[in-house]
Specification:
This protein has about 325 residues and is α/β, with parallel strands linked by helices. About 35% of the residues lie in helices and about 20% in strands.
């Protein structure tokens, strides 16, 4: 490991937990120093100039006022606190003296620790399951999208365009197809995750926030809303009203004639880009400017311009729907 590898101090009395943290961080390229004594940790910090501390919150609290008086906490690097409980008012705790901090509720996992580090080291420019408030009051979210269609309808491309638009908006995103047959006309699906933190989960999406249905003939043959959260959103390519489509879901259902729009604007009833525009309008999860840019990067020239026009038409139509509500 090079000498320039960043240094992390781990302050904890639980040796087994400290060893687990060491293994996690060492694999990420950190040099890790473990201490059960705060004064020793302070000395190492002064010698090494470590960039991060991982500390047991209850352990630090137990050191009392005397221990706090010995250290100028404001000079410390960002700290990830490990705790058995999540206190509502962290102003009463040690966090107020630190430049940056994050709180992770035990039991600790690799994903929790790395996301907390990404958060306080500034690797999350803007949004982990659903919306969560961290210990320092910042908002985090991960939104999951499942797209259903048939082979040849650009289901995978739609997911990629959504992810590209999210990147343009400064978010993290992953897009990937389901495993299985993708022959022409066969049912296929793709997935998108969007978050303000790096995404390490690569599994298929079982409990989406949003479902996009590119082909309404799939309704009745596949459980399209399986796992969909009760407050989720369904966006369907159809000229029918939501009450007419027979979809078993009590949440928000939005319909628009995406294939018809695509035929008029593009010359072909390929509705994937149109529905990406609808997604942007219905959720605000991705911006219109980023949608436009992602389409033009994927389809440069006149074809891209036609797809942008279709996406814009869908965007405007759903804006009108919301304005009427």
């Amino acid at each position: 490991m090079p000498e320039t590898a960043p240094c992390v101090l781990v302050i904890n009395r639980d040796v087994s937990l400290a060893e687990a943290i060491h293994k996690i961080l060492a694999r990420e390229g950190y040099r890790v120093f473990f201490f059960t004594d705060l004064a020793q940790a302070k000395d190492r910090l002064q010698k090494e100039g470590c960039s991060l501390v991982v500390a047991d919150l209850e352990f630090l609290e137990q050191m009392g006022e005397k221990g706090r008086a010995q250290i100028d906490w404001s000079t410390w690097p960002p700290v990830v606190f490990l705790t058995d409980y999540m206190e509502e008012n962290f102003n009463r705790l040690l966090l107020r003296g630190f430049k940056k901090s994050s709180v992770v509720k035990k039991p600790l996992t690799r994903e929790k620790l790395l996301e907390a580090i990404d958060q306080i080291t500034g690797k999350n420019p803007t949004y982990s399951e659903g919306n969560q408030i961290s210990g320092n009051g910042s908002l985090h979210f991960t939104k999951e999208i499942r797209i259903h269609g048939r082979g040849g309808q650009g289901v995978v491309t739609a997911a990629e365009l959504v992810a590209l638009a999210a990147f343009e908006d400064g978010k993290y995103a992953t897009a990937f197809p389901s495993f299985g047959s993708e022959r022409m006309g066969a049912p296929v699906q793709s997935f998108v995750r969007i978050s303000n933190l790096p995404i390490r989960d690569r599994s298929q999406i079982q409990t989406p926030d949003i479902v996009i249905i590119q082909d309404p003939t799939l309704i009745g043959s596949i459980n399209l809303t399986k796992g969909l959260k009760p407050d989720g959103i369904v966006i369907i390519d159809t000229e029918k009203a939501p009450s007419e489509i027979g979809l078993d879901f009590d949440g928000t259902i939005l319909t628009l004639p995406a294939s018809k729009i695509a035929l008029e604007k593009i010359g072909r009833p390929i509705q994937n880009t149109t529905l990406v525009g609808a997604l942007a309008s219905a959720t605000g999860l991705i911006s219109w400017e980023s949608v436009k840019k992602s389409i033009m990067e994927r389809f440069p020239g006149p074809i891209g311009e036609k797809n942008v026009a279709a996406a814009w038409e869908a965007f405007q139509q759903l804006q009108k729907v919301y304005a009427q509500k």
